[in-house]
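Page 47, continued from p. 46.
Same chain as before, 268 aa.
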Amino acid sequence: MKKELVNNYLKTIGFFKEIVSIEDINKLIRAHVNTFAFSSLKVLLKEEISLEIEDIYKSIVLNKRGGYCFEHNKLFYEVLKSLGFDVEYYLARVVNNSDNIVPQTHRFTLLNYEGERYLLDVGIGFRTPNVAIKFGDEVTSNHLGINFRIKEFEDNTYALQSIQENEVFNITKFDLNKCYEEDFELGHFYSHKHPCAAFVNNLVLSLITNTEIRSLRNSDYFKIYENSQEKIEIDNLDKFQKILKEDFNVFFEDKEMELLYRSFVKKI
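Result:
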């Protein structure tokens, strides 16, 4: 990734210190998920979504149109790689605590740092951890009372789990078989083209701040706090437009927002 793009990315998220430690990377993760929305809006508008890094940078950083895992996690991977970190990329299945066999349609990053391995993921929607998760079955503290760990199974597969009030939730399952960019292109094609894909059929937006998780799915908009949550009614187009701009920091043309509102948010 070009140095100019990396510098502009860091400037956009307000990150001006040298990145040398896990603590620095955690701060970088938090700045990313607090600035750039996870979003299916481009999918619903039937955009041709490129996975070329310059196009991802333009869409997410410059044009503020959000993105999903194949975009967010590639951007974050390329930034860390450009900064000299030892990073790898892999595919996972988003299982959402079920035993269903689902396709590998999720990209994440693995960081090798000082003899330890960490999972980095800035693109799982409202379940996105805002810290690096260390391999080894130990619990990593997150925020808002939600913790994470990586559970390893006897067949050399893993699960990324969230833990809240002693309740364990399997978010993704994965192995560490080598992946290639062509594998991501295939998963990406399914995710934004297949008629049964979740993002083809649902308006999904999320943004994670230090004090709350903002999660919009079709007409259901929640702000999730450590000990409570708030549901916000979206009862008109103006309110929807304001929420996109002010709560999620995404920008779309008026006609695009009206189409999204009438197709996925407005209750008939």
